[in-house]
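Support request from a user on the community tier.

User writes: "When I paste my structure tokens into the form, the page sometimes reloads and wipes my input. The last time it worked, I copied everything first. Here is what I submitted, just in case something in the input itself triggers the reload:"
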């Protein structure tokens, strides 16, 4: 596997309501090629838009599965804050 085998990047589109759409792409940077859902991506091709469950094979023994998830930031930060309160106030 190369040092620069695959590039994964995110583009976020935001509208007026502060709701955004997140797009995640994968781009092949390797000499030998990466596979996206069984098809050779190819270094000269554009990046591929990833969907939940897409499989990226880097080598015959190394694969990644893209898992899309939406996290409600309010719930996530509430959980982090709750944990911080427990750490800072052990009697709580």
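"...and here is what came back when it finally went through:"
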């Amino acid at each position: 596997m190369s040092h620069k085998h695959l590039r994964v990047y995110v583009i976020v589109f935001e509208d007026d309501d502060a709701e955004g759409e997140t797009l995640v792409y994968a781009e092949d940077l390797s000499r030998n090629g990466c596979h996206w859902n069984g098809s050779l991506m190819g270094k000269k091709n554009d990046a591929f838009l990833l969907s939940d469950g897409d499989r990226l094979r880097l080598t015959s023994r190394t694969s990644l599965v893209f898992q899309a998830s939406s996290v409600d930031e309010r719930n996530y930060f509430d959980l982090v804050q709750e944990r911080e309160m427990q750490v800072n106030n052990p009697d709580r």
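Agent notes: The reload is a front-end session timeout and is unrelated to the input. The longest helix spans residues 73-88. DSSP finds one helix and seven strands in the chain. Escalated to web team.
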